[in-house]
Amino acid sequence: MAIKIYKPTSPGRRIHSVTDYSVLDKKHKTPKNLLVSKSIQAGRNNSGKITVRHQGGGHKKKIRLVDFSRADKKGIPAKVMTREYDPTRTAFISLVFYKDGTKRYILSPEGLKVGQTVIYDDKVEIAPGNRMVLKNIPVGAFVHDIELVPGHGGRIARSAGSYATLQTIDGGHALLKMPSGEIRKVKDNCLASVGQLSNADWMNVRIGKAGRMRLMGWRPSVRGKVMNPVDHPHGGGEGVNPIGLKYPKTPWGKHALGVKTRDRKKYSNKFIVQRRSK
């Protein structure tokens, strides 16, 4: 997938770039049963208070229902009909037609083309888009859409260009190297799809201007040091001032920037063999 750069007809256009979507199917109509409307929460909880800052606005979009499990389609081949853009995720999706007449969306890996066949079973060919249990996938293979708990659907490596590397199978567990560099254990009967996810160049896209961030649902962020003391621990002072504290703080006074927030007694710590690299 390539990055497209336009002629610099304006200051915003000069520094921005976009993903080249020319390889995607744009004319195909999305099945209505695979579309869901969802109201925008804008970072607010059920009482209307902002709990996550800098969210709101954004372009109106509908959610595509993606099948992260495929558990009920075991042994049924499916033909890839489209490769499409999904406004709610960074990776591309593919519409597949199963032999029993069902239509589903799946995450589209690199190398998956329209007209190819994908299948989920205990042991199938090692080809992009095929799905099987981890213990039947060869060591060293790239996998995505990986289950953490058998039968709960894919949870890991679902964003553009991401994949995990299967390192070994031992004692009922598979050792996976995550996109972050973390090495962790996952039960070897968890399902995973073969291949690296599509749109790997998404990380190289330059947003270019504030208006484009607003379309993505991101509201402006203001530095704490330019606020008043009543609004932020970093605020106050005349002119340009440093933070002036032993350590940076959040607007609510807690430690920030580089402080570990993971619970030391979290139940899943025993599955982490090696923490992600710094």
Query: Remind me, CATH topology of the largest domain?
Result: OB fold (Dihydrolipoamide Acetyltransferase, E2P)
Tell me what the CATH architecture of the largest domain is: Beta Barrel
Q: Tell me how many strands there are.
A: 17
**How much is the average pLDDT?**
90
Which superfamily, in CATH terms, is the homologous superfamily of the largest domain?
Nucleic acid-binding proteins
Residue share in helix: under 10%
Quick one: biggest sheet? 7 strands, antiparallel
pLDDT < 50 stretches: none
Structural class by SSE content? mainly beta
Write down the overall geometry. globular
- C-alpha end-to-end distance: 29 Å
Element pattern in H and E: EHEEEEEEEEEEEEEEEHE
Integer-rounded radius of gyration: 22 Å
Secondary structure tally, helices? 2
Tell me the domain tally: 2
Q: Strand arrangement, largest sheet? A: 9-16-10-13-14-15-17
Describe this structure in words.
This protein has 278 residues and is mostly beta strands. It folds into two domains: 3-203, OB fold (Dihydrolipoamide Acetyltransferase, E2P) (Beta Barrel); 223-278, Ribosomal protein L2, domain 3 (Irregular). Helix content is 4%, strand content 23%. The protein contains two helices and 17 strands. The strands form five sheets. It has a seven-stranded antiparallel β-sheet with strand order 9-16-10-13-14-15-17, with no helix packed on it. Strands 7-6-5-8 form a four-stranded antiparallel β-sheet, with no helix packed on it. The chain has a two-stranded antiparallel ribbon with strand order 1-2. A hairpin with an 8-residue loop joins strand 5 and strand 6 (93-98). The longest helix is centred in the last third of the chain and has 6 residues, at 210-215. It is globular, with a radius of gyration of 22 Å.
